[in-house]
Design goal:
The structure holds two protein chains of two kinds. Chain A is mainly beta. Chain A is built from no helices and ten strands. A five-stranded antiparallel β-sheet of chain A has the order 1-3-8-7-6, with no helix packed on it. Chain A has a five-stranded mixed β-sheet with strand order 2-10-9-4-5, with no helix packed on it. Chain B has no helices and eleven strands. Chain B has strands spanning about 5, 10-15, 20-25, 30-35, 45-50, 55, 65-70, 75-80, 85-95, 105, 110-115. In chain B, strands 2, 4, 5, 6, 9, 10 and 11 form a seven-stranded mixed β-sheet that branches. A four-stranded antiparallel β-sheet of chain B has the order 1-3-8-7, with no helix packed on it. In chain B, strand 5 (about 45-50) and strand 6 (about 55) form a beta hairpin. In chain B, about 35% of the residues are buried. The chains are: A mainly beta, B mainly beta.
Chain lengths: ~110, ~120
């Protein structure tokens, strides 16, 4: 089924460093969303970028989208231990019956 | 809090039991979803309801039976489950399924263990 694929599967960094996470997809999209999940909890929506946008910011988050390469990246600047979580991308594909589907996610560990 | 509430948070059931998971949202959304999250696997979309009508059943075994009595409530009835059904079950809602923006709001999930 259609879904985004996140890369890397796991990322471990030191507090204060930047974390870059990538997402690739295969068909055209209306938008792409990033979500965060703390261990054993529900997903929380972080940011949405539309197909006609190239970059978007929200606090310490920066999302880029390259529709020609069918890829997106999520950058968390000046990471904190509290950023430790799993991160998922969810492309909203074009088409009337498009579903919000998720990959396996990226496990981010931020060491204090 | 996301505005989507799931109960119970944890559930242990035997393979012969019947139980139900409940999801409630008061965000004015018209689409509700059940997802299953197993370890090391992508989130699996199970069911979609749009304006109380089921619009997607992603080849889910009949031992899982959803019910959507109104746009605010969604249930997942469970019976004769298998140990491999143990997972985190997540409910989500959005304004309307298939809508271009379609940001989803998730509940905290029910951790189900089948023994």
């Amino acid at each position: 089924s259609q879904q985004g694929e996140e890369d890397p599967q796991a990322l471990s960094i030191q507090e204060g460093e930047n974390a870059t996470m990538n997402c690739s997809y295969k068909t055209s999209i209306n938008n792409l969303q990033w979500y965060r999940q703390n261990s054993g909890r529900g997903l929380v929506h972080l940011i949405l970028i539309r197909s006609n946008e190239r970059e978007k910011h929200s606090g310490r988050l920066r999302v880029t989208l390259d529709t020609s390469k069918k890829s997106s990246s999520l950058l968390i600047t000046a990471s904190r231990a509290a950023d430790t979580a799993s991160y998922f991308c969810a492309p909203r594909f074009t088409g009337a019956n498009s579903k919000l589907t998720f990959g396996k996610g990226i496990t981010l560990s931020v060491r204090p | 809090e996301t505005g989507v509430t799931q109960t119970p948070r944890h559930l242990v059931m035997g393979m012969t039991n019947k139980k139900s998971l409940k999801c409630e949202q008061h965000l004015g959304h018209n689409a509700m979803y059940w997802y299953k999250q197993s370890a090391k696997k992508p989130l699996e979309l199970m069911f979609v309801y749009n304006f109380k009508e089921q619009t997607e059943n992603n080849s889910v075994p009949s031992r899982f039976s959803p019910e959507c009595p109104n746009s605010s409530h969604l249930f997942l009835h469970l019976h004769t489950l298998q140990p491999e059904d143990s997972a985190l079950y997540l409910c989500a809602s959005s304004r309307k399924d298939g809508e271009e923006k379609g940001e989803a709001f998730f509940g905290q999930g029910t951790r189900l263990t089948v023994v």
